[in-house]
Amino acid sequence: MKRIYFVLIGLMVLVMSCSINKINFSQFELSELNSNGYKVFLDSQEIDLVHTYLDEKNILKVSIDRKNKIIQIIRKNDSNGFIFLNDLLIQKKYKSNLDRIVINNLSIDFLDIPNIKFELGSVKYIKQLTQHDYLGKDFDDLPQVKNTIGNGMLIINTITISVDNE
Q1: What pLDDT is recorded for position 105?
Q2: 8 A C-beta contact, residue 34 and residue 48
């Protein structure tokens, strides 16, 4: 009888260690897992999280099944739509001579633009910078600033950045 209890407890521990775990939503970490072979499901539909930016305030639950390499994301409002980066660029009338697009501090490849989409409400900050924005600043003559910005750089953030006052 003791053996049966021991085996049952062992099986329960084994099953619990392989079960699905709830985790916090992190766009960067989950995108990395997606790049490394994990399938990501958003409201039970498979998505490419590497090119999809979600509204973190609309995330209800995130669970991960490491054994089967599956991430399940459930939104509070699953009827929220998406806008593609191409449409956002046209809608906001950004200059076509952008040399660089940066999303969440990561430079993106221009070939990826047609695949990138944002959940409505996910974009927290968007700004186009040009060299003109840096005229008269202490570092406006630095070549690395001019090379980085080029003719224009578009900055998009979907992550809320909090600044601590110390």
Answers
A1: 86
A2: yes
Residue with tokens 């999809």: 52
Q: In terms of pLDDT, which residue wins out, 162 or 36? A: 36
User: Would you give the DSSP letter of residue 125?
Assistant: E
pLDDT tens digits, 91-130: 777 766 788 888 998 889 889 999 999 999 999 988 888 7
Mean pLDDT across the chain: 80
- Residue 21 is predicted with a pLDDT of 82
Q: What's the pLDDT score for residue 110?
A: 87
Residue type, 64: I
Q: Give CA–CA dist 49/153, Å, rounded.
A: 23
Strand partners, 126: 156
Task: Determine whether 90 is exposed, middle or buried from the number of CB atoms within 10 Å of its CB (0-12, 13-18, 19+).
Answer: exposed
Q: Would you kindly state where each structural domain of the chain is located, as residue ranges?
A: 20-75, 85-157
Residue 117 pairs in a beta bridge with: 52, 84
